[in-house]
From TrEMBL, chain A:
Organism: Lachnobacterium bovis
GO BP terms: amino acid transport
KW Transport (keyword) present: yes
Protein name, as recorded: Polar amino acid transport system substrate-binding protein
Keyword Glycoprotein annotated: no
GO cellular component terms, semicolon-separated: extracellular region; outer membrane-bounded periplasmic space
Record keywords: Signal, Transport
Occurrences of domain Solute-binding protein family 3/N-terminal (ranges): 54-273
Coiled coil segments of this chain: none
Signal sequence, start to end: 1-27
Family: Belongs to the bacterial solute-binding protein 3 family.
Automatic annotation (TrEMBL), chain B:
Similarity comment: Belongs to the binding-protein-dependent transport system permease family. HisMQ subfamily.
Membrane-traversing stretches: 23-44, 56-76, 82-102, 131-155, 187-208
PROSITE patterns: ABC_TM1
Cited InterPro entries: AA_ABC_transptr_permease_3TM (IPR010065), ArtM/GltK/GlnP/TcyL/YhdX-like (IPR043429), MetI-like (IPR000515), MetI-like_sf (IPR035906)
Family annotation (Pfam families): BPD_transp_1
Species this chain originates from: Lachnobacterium bovis
Subcellular location: Cell membrane
Record GO terms (molecular function): transmembrane transporter activity
One GO location term (cellular component): ATP-binding cassette (ABC) transporter complex
Alphabetically ordered keywords of this record: Amino-acid transport, Cell membrane, Membrane, Transmembrane, Transmembrane helix, Transport
Example GO biological process: amino acid transport
Topological relation to the membrane, as annotated: Multi-pass membrane protein
Protein name in the entry: Polar amino acid transport system permease protein
ABC transmembrane type-1 domain sequence ranges: 17-205
Automatic annotation (TrEMBL), chain C:
Gene3D superfamilies: MetI-like (1.10.3720.10)
Protein name: Polar amino acid transport system permease protein
PANTHER family, per database record: ABC TRANSPORTER MEMBRANE-SPANNING PERMEASE-GLUTAMINE TRANSPORT, MEMBRANE COMPONENT OF AMINO ACID ABC TRANSPORTER
Cellular localization per UniProt: Cell membrane
Family, per entry: Belongs to the binding-protein-dependent transport system permease family.
Main subcellular location: membrane
UniProt cross-references to InterPro entries, sorted A to Z: AA_ABC_transptr_permease_3TM (IPR010065), ArtM/GltK/GlnP/TcyL/YhdX-like (IPR043429), MetI-like (IPR000515), MetI-like_sf (IPR035906)
Gene Ontology molecular-function annotations: transmembrane transporter activity
GO cellular component, one term: ATP-binding cassette (ABC) transporter complex
Residue ranges constituting the ABC transmembrane type-1 domain according to the UniProt record: 22-216
Ranges that cross the membrane: 20-48, 60-79, 85-105, 193-212
């Protein structure tokens, strides 16, 4: 890290000029230079990744038990377990990039990561922006609330109550679209949303049901009043739109891993402590095939 | 850039602007009150309180607003102090701004030589008149540039509100990018709206600065 | 009441990770501030030259920096450059670009102020002695300006450090992000960790910025 920063210093004078130009583009108002027609490809092909010896994978760093950093500073969780396997099978090092829910698409579209493996739910809107590989987990939306005031139906939420969501998640889009009257309190990071929820800043927290179930299991005094809301979706790795070589490799990998029940093993390593054995068949998607 | 998208986003940005302005200016109001009170305490060298004000100024001038807000919003509830995001934003701006305003007001009062109030008194003005007609106008003109700079600084600092779930301009942009990935349009509107919010302050500040310059001594 | 979560920092490598996070933030600040001061000196001198076109451009530059929050610039540069120019910037690089863009304006303005504060008579006497413009600046004006500038530039360092806390927003794992990660990883065992950990981060920033700003005030008083 030290060296990369220092080596950048030399280029800075020229980059500064670009910064100046950019601001003039944005402040010049009349010049709409945002022409997407002659854009270069931002992604790296499978070959380029292998050649560089490093794959950049965007994961959460504050979403236990899917993607988080343990007390020794190592990335861990269900997504990370898969990511490590991908890197191993590609024969490269995994470089984890900490992302937030709201900027996952951004990271792919700007080529800052090769793969997003951050509990990324497959939706139609997102599929227009990025390419999803085969799924590796099931998901729906869920709502958790304090046990002394459990919210079992969304119409229990009063006009003044606020529901905590994380910016850029499917819960946010779903509630905004289908329940525009519910007031949302939005956070960037999982850690912040959970802390705010613990601090009683909202009456409930809506998110992927996996996540809210985990929260209620790990923290006393909370109950998942609504365990399945909206459509049943899947979670899959995503790559930059058009990155066909990497996408194909990922799909083949997921299928191949199915033969050795990799995701069941992954569940038993990373999720079983939180969910117990009951959820294994419900959550895990093996070999990219949804039952 | 897609014009339709720009137009459809404008109402959202407008709401965000109003919220940012509301909380921002409440905070700035608070910071001025803190600033005046604190400056008075320092100017008249009130015992003990003077030291507390000093510690407060150092603490808040030497830590980032982001960290202050995180502490107030996420950490304080753990010891039972729970405040809403809006109040927290206002407090954050108020406390941070207060630390800067104190310095500004204090140095404003200090620019006026003691001789001035002495001469005014000897000319037969009473204390109230001296303060109103001699000290205040001059202190005001000395304070205006610093005050404008502080206000602009604080309005800019509101951009960190987004981290405590306040739907300010920054948050709206980030949120829209997260949901619909129309990055260029969102960032463009973001910059435009900050100009709408801060440019008037900058211009008014310049005008007031010019108008009050008459009170300056010489030059 | 349970523990306030400071004990969390003693577990594993948590505390040293927090320090590492702080180091990342500081490194970005120091690189940015060094470049800002160097370029700022040039820009400041340019501002005092009475070239109308240059003046106009610099004025716009200053006003842009004055109005747009650094966080917005950070987003524009980090996500916008790839969109508009198709080039990919590291988060660290974008952060340094933005802070330099901002710092140069600030520094330039300080330099301009310091030069302006030198009485015209000094310029005039120097010219009268037969020096050219370059000589006047190098031998007469700059040495005096520098003395006034040093405390102000030191002050810029603390402002840079404080502003660097924003880089958490573009995904750089610095001290605040590490704090969040620690809180998250220990949520079940110590639910109050937010207090201790954010409190420690607050104190860390203070312990770094405070001595620097005291130094700046001390020098200002001494050299005034």
């Amino acid at each position: 890290m030290k060296k990369t920063i220092l080596s950048k210093v030399k280029k800075l004078t020229s980059l500064l000029l670009i910064g100046l130009m950019l601001t003039s583009v944005f402040t010049g108002c009349t010049t709409t230079k945002a022409d997407s027609s002659n854009k270069k490809t931002v992604y790296r092909t499978l070959k380029e990744i292998k050649k560089s010896g490093k794959i950049n994978i965007g994961v959460f760093s504050d979403k236990s038990p899917f993607g988080y950093v343990d007390k020794n500073g190592k990335y861990a969780g269900y997504d990370v377990y898969f990511a490590n396997r991908i890197a191993k099978d590609l024969g490269v090092d995994a470089n984890f990039v900490s992302v937030e829910a709201a900027n996952r698409i951004e990271y792919l579209q700007t080529g800052k990561v090769d793969i997003i493996l951050a509990n990324f739910t497959v939706t139609k809107e997102r599929a227009e922006e990025v390419d999803f590989a085969l799924p590796y987990m099931n998901v729906a939306l869920g709502v958790v609330s304090p046990s002394n005031k459990v919210i079992k139906k969304l119409d229990q939420i009063g006009a003044k109550d606020e529901v905590i969501v994380i910016s850029g998640t499917t819960a946010e889009t779903y509630l905004t679209k289908n329940y525009p009257k519910i007031k949302l309190q939005k956070y960037d990071a999982y850690a912040e949303a959970k802390t705010a929820f613990e601090n009683k800043n909202g009456v409930a927290w809506a998110n992927d049901n996996t996540e809210v179930i985990a929260f209620a299991k790990e923290n006393k005094g909370y109950t998942v009043g609504i365990s399945s809301l909206g459509d049943n979706d899947t979670i899959a790795p995503a790559v930059t739109k058009g990155n066909k070589t990497l996408l194909k490799w990922l799909n083949d990998e997921t299928k191949a891993l199915g033969k050795e029940s990799f995701f069941h093993k992954n569940y038993e390593k990373t999720l079983v402590d939180t969910y117990g054995a009951d959820y294994e068949e419900i959550l895990v998607v093996e070999g990219g095939k949804v039952k | 850039m897609d014009k339709d998208i720009l137009v459809s986003y404008i109402p959202l940005y407008k709401n965000a602007l109003l919220l940012t302005l509301k909380i921002g200016w409440q905070g700035i109001g608070l910071s001025m009150i803190i600033g005046l009170a604190g400056a008075a305490v320092l100017h008249f060298k009130v015992k003990v309180i003077k030291n507390i004000v000093g510690i407060y100024v150092e603490l808040f001038r030497n830590t980032p607003l982001l960290v202050q807000l995180f502490f107030i919003y996420f950490a304080l509830p753990k010891i039972g102090v729970n405040i809403s995001a809006e109040i927290c934003g206002m407090l954050g701006i108020g406390l941070l701004g207060g630390a800067y305003m104190i310095e500004t007001f204090r140095s404003g009062l200090e620019t006026i030589p003691v001789m001035q109030s002495e001469s005014a008194l000897s000319l037969g003005l009473d204390k109230r008149q001296t303060f109103l007609y001699v000290i205040l106008p001059q202190a005001f003109s000395a304070v205006v540039p610093g005050l404008t700079a502080n206000i602009i600084f604080l309005l800019k600092e509101t951009s960190v509100f987004s981290t405590i779930s306040l739907m300010d301009l920054m948050f709206t942009a980030k949120d829209l990018i997260g949901m619909y990935a129309k990055t260029i349009e969102c960032l463009f509107l973001l910059v435009v709206f900050y100009f709408i919010m801060i440019l008037p302050v900058s211009i008014i500040g310049m005008i007031v600065e010019r108008k009050t310059r008459y009170a300056e001594f010489g030059d | 009441m349970q523990s306030l979560g400071i004990d969390v920092l003693l577990k594993g490598s948590n505390f040293s990770r927090l320090l590492q996070g702080l180091y990342v933030a500081l490194e970005i600040s120091f690189v940015s501030v060094t470049i800002s001061i160097l370029l700022g000196l040039i820009v400041g001198v340019l501002m005092t030259l009475k070239n109308p076109i240059l003046c106009f451009i610099l004025k716009i530059y200053l006003e842009v920096v004055r109005i747009i929050p650094q966080m917005v610039l950070l987003f524009v540069v980090y996500f916008g450059t790839t969109r508009v120019f198709g080039m990919d910037l590291l988060a660290e690089t974008s952060a340094i670009i933005v802070f330099v863009f901002w710092g140069v304006a600030e520094m330039g303005d300080l330099v301009r102020g310091a030069i302006k504060s030198i009485p015209t008579i000094q310029f005039e006497s120097a010219y009268a002695l037969g020096m050219n413009k370059f000589q006047v600046y190098v031998y007469i004006i700059l040495p005096q300006t520098l003395r006034r500038l040093i405390p102000l530039s030191i002050n810029l360092i603390t402002r840079m450090i404080k502003t660097t806390s924003l880089v958490v927003m573009v995904g750089i794992v610095e001290v605040l992000k590490v704090a969040q990660q620690i809180i998250e990883a220990n949520r079940t065992t110590s639910p109050n960790a937010a207090f201790g950990v954010f409190g420690v981060v607050f104190i860390m920033y203070f312990l770094i910025c405070w001595p620097i700003s005291r130094l700046s005030i001390y020098l200002e008083k001494r050299w005034a």
